Amino acid sequence: MRLLPLAPGGPRRHSPRHLPACSLALLLLLGCCLGVSRVAAGSRRPNVVLLLTDDQDEVLGGMTPLKKTKALIGEMGMTFSSAYVPSALCCPSRASILTGKYPHNHHVVNNTLEGNCSSKSWQKIQEPHTFPAILSSVCGYQTFFAGKYLNEYGAPDAGGLEHVPVGWSYWYALEKNSKYYNYTLSINGKARKHGENYSVDYLTDVLANVSLDFLDYKSNYEPFFMMISTPAPHSPWTAAPQYQKLFQNVFAPRNKNFNIHGTNKHWLIRQAKTPMTNSSIQFLDNAFRKRWQTLLSVDDLVEKLVKRLEFIGELNNTYIFYTSDNGYHTGQFSLPIDKRQLYEFDIKVPLLVRGPGIKPNQTSKMLVANIDLGPTILDIAGYNLNKTQMDGMSLLPILRGASNVTWRSDVLVEYQGEGRNVTDPTCPSLSPGVSQCFPDCVCEDAYNNTYACVRTMSALWNLQYCEFDDQEVFVEVYNLTADPHQITNIAKSIDPELLGKMNYRLMMLQSCSGPTCRTPGVFDPGYRFDPRLMFNNYGGGRTRRFSKHLL
Predict the structure, then answer these.
(1) Active-site residue 90, yes or no?
(2) CATH, domain range 47-406
(3) Which of 32, 33, 90, 437 is catalytic?
(4) Fewer beta carbons within 10 angstroms: which end of the chain, N or C?
(5) Per residue in 132-160, pLDDT tens?
(6) What does pTM read for this prediction?
């Protein structure tokens, strides 16, 4: 299948000697993207590929089956061991990747249209300012998207599949949420349905094929950006036929927080049945196994992509990023399967990067978040980051091994819980307001599962401080140096002065925008408490603020 570009007339294929004359205004515009030093492969700016998986954890061994990916990206570049998402749910997290903003600034709070997921408001206010839109309109990049975009993309009330977000030259987007068969793609705004024939319909392989086609037919005189967003390892966990019998002796990790009661945690965690039933454990073990099976096709995709980049002579001039939109849990604190929670298994993700100037076999412990991807990729393109309102920071100095890099010591995690207005039929004993319930009456979400956290990592502290927006203003605090599995909530035993500082820092981060999101944290030498930062108007819209704690 040959790709067709979105723009009339196809991608520009003028040779450098025959480029059309540019107006002064256009030259000034393009000048915003010429700050990157030229690389060895030639004078053209580097290409970028962003590979995004769906619900792939890091804490529970999510990278284990991806041997080729680790060899071709991680071992050839840098692996970040402390990469986080600002919200442990697909649509808010993906919106953060695209905008470089925390959820309170892009206003995508859940996976529904009402929660601003691919809504008309999102399309009007945020999409024109995403980093791919800047790459295309200002930096002259060819842009290619294939796979899952946002969970409500293609909804009739939000423009349907005809809507193609600003800034994409080639658009192969999945309608709504992840599937492997029997799905519909928007191909530059036109619907194409797929069935259940593995050889032509298996989505991960379709994404691989259209990506390789793009590399074959792209312009050779402009840099390119590719975003490939796979369904794996999201449910329904449908593996390719050749992988469906693998990992039969693999089970979900029985780590210290597996199948235990969530003592001294928010009520939603405490309500989980402990110990889990045998049927629940069998179910989550099977899900864990199938998730790994689906990732093997992603591993194949990565191998094909790297080989094709090498074959066409682009590999040495291409940055490749590999990450996920959120983590996942399978039995931790007796919660069967899902994401959405504040704990490491849900908010921590893989992040591997290779590219020009990145030395092989490196591991960085720097605290990074997916809001950093947009600024990093714009920095690679040479764009002046001061012209953006992004909350994140460019990883490029870290990737290139710069010394004395001034870096953050904390990031914000925020989530707005979802519930149903009626009693869940699988859980009649609980009142309305819960959701994501399992047959044995364990619910994974609720209206007041609304929380915000400061995740702090410094030379002396590895700390997480969280507050819930409920009647209790429930607080959870974890010292991850002593308690990496987050079993013991130390909110009532930690120094009250430190607890107060973390409370103020949380309020500030929940109100931050752009540069104020990058101010020194509580444990940084330059930290100072400035109450004005808690009540700025940068973020606009509704911001949750907490003003008290339990002590």
Answers:
(1) yes
(2) 3.40.720.10
(3) 90
(4) N
(5) 999 999 999 999 999 999 999 999 999 99
(6) 0.92
